[in-house]
Amino acid sequence: MQKLLRTLRNDESLMLAYQKGDSVAFEVLYMRHKDSLFKFLYNSCQQHQLVEDLAQDIWLSIIRGVANYKPLATFKTYLYRIARNKLIDHWRQNKENKYAHSEFNEQTYLHNTDYFSAAERKMQVGEVLDAIMQLPGEQREAFLLRAEGFSQQEISEITDSKPETVKSRVRYANRQLHSMVEVSS
């Protein structure tokens, strides 16, 4: 019964409960977010072992930093900010372009945005994904975070960008994708 009650609580209250020693609260958070985090990481670098290592490192960072956690943003924003920073650290250490390994699993995004339902009628799935890959890196990142359901403010916090910059990146990405759809039809 207690575990059921925990599953009904919001992420921030679960994290605060975990901060007080409730390990089941952490399990609930982990189960809620592990798949979407893995998907985000995988679509950022396409290297399964690296994704597993990064995911483990991210969750360990959550565990190690629990004493300092303050619910200043949603837990999901906090989690993805850590994930993005871990990715950037990895790319810096390995001197990789942070957008070079971005390939996307078609099943991941086709059901996440209204754009794809319209675009899929005009283009083959591969062409949609190719169009996304042609977006400038920062636009693609903002577009995909938006596709994950993050608000403009949350994307701003995750990417350490101004909200207006995020808004512009998403808008430009949408315009570019729509123009690519029109050209190919």
Any descriptors?
185 residues; mainly alpha; Rna Polymerase Sigma Factor, Chain: A; Arc Repressor Mutant, subunit A; 2 domains; 11 helices; 0% strand; globular
Write the layout of secondary structure elements.
Layout: H1 2-8, H2 11-19, H3 23-45, H4 48-64, H5 75-93, H6 106-110, H7 114-122, H8 125-134, H9 137-147, H10 152-159, H11 163-184
Helix pairs in contact: 2-3, 3-4, 3-5, 4-5, 5-10, 9-11, 10-11
CATH architecture descriptor name of the largest domain: Orthogonal Bundle
Helix content: over 70%
Kindly report the CATH topology of the largest domain: Rna Polymerase Sigma Factor, Chain: A
Mean pLDDT, rounded to whole units?
A: 79
Total beta strands? 0
Tell me the number of structural domains. 2
Strand content: under 5%
CATH C-level label of the largest domain: Mainly Alpha
| SSE order, one letter for each helix or strand | HHHHHHHHHHH
Shape: globular
Low-confidence stretches: 97-117, 119-123
Helix/strand class? mainly alpha
Estimated radius of gyration: 18 Å
Distance between the termini: 55 Å
Written description of the protein model:
It is built from eleven helices and no strands. It has 185 residues and is mainly alpha-helical. It folds into two domains: 2-93, Orthogonal Bundle (Rna Polymerase Sigma Factor, Chain: A), CATH 1.10.1740.10; 106-184, Arc Repressor Mutant, subunit A (Orthogonal Bundle), CATH 1.10.10. The radius of gyration is 18 Å and the shape is globular.
